[in-house]
Amino acid sequence: MTVKITTTQGTPLPYDLQDLIIGHLREDPKSLAACSLVSSLWSDLARILLFSRLQAQIAYNGYSEDEARITELITLLEAPNSRLGQYIHRISIDGSDDFFIIDDTRAYQLGYDMVFSALRRIVPRLSRIDALEIKAFTWCCVSRDAQIQIAIMSEVKSLSLSHIHVDLVDDLFHFSFKTFPKLEEFQVSEIGAKEVPAFCPTMFLPHANRIMSLRKLVIFIEESTMPLVLALTNNIISVQNINTLDVEFRKMTYFCHVDSLLKTIGPTLTTLTLWLNLDYTNVEGMQYDLNL
User: Fold this and answer.
1) 90 vs 109, 134, 203, 251, CA distance in Å?
2) Is 0.85 topped by the overall pTM?
């Protein structure tokens, strides 16, 4: 894309117009990179868009390369006059646990210590955090101090939970909704629970008014997420603002719950994605993208 601008010498463009010019190029990384070299003002405007999806991934699998990457990120953030923290708005923390090991020996405590020690130094250097991904943890082995480190990011608007083992599944949901009251997007999948309590309406009542801003829900329907599904279909958790729904399930026994969920959220939906992975068929996977 080529943008040609002519002005009288010495007459600067109005700031609003400069914002519009840079904003028009948000999907053109090469042009944004070129604009960042024009002036200090354009550099700031262009880099905000150019790095808008920059994500800090904090993971430690026991390899020296993992530790080196974490150390390098911290060094860059803590460098004199560093502005990197202005551009990182997404964080992924990975406990590196093997989801398919069914006892607590799967928890890699050294990895946990490394991840949360790094998080303690990284988060204060970031101007804001919009999205947080938490994956591959055994929740009972996440220390209270580590949970406090996560809770510092309470302004998060997008939360993803995946491949997490819990003793009581409602503990994880309570922590999420209590800690992040401004959620606009919630993704939850592959939650392994030792115990899934029978659904009770009072289970989610304390959080009924805390996530009124929820706009997008991505959920893998399984036994561990059924309490959340029932809270949604019984309007205990507000669904009036949800306009995007992404649902996956692997057993036809959950189809009636999918149907109830669609009927509850349907009036406000603009985008629906259904994933059906039926293990006992010869079909590996079927995807249906429906724009309502």
Assistant:
1) 24, 11, 30, 33
2) no
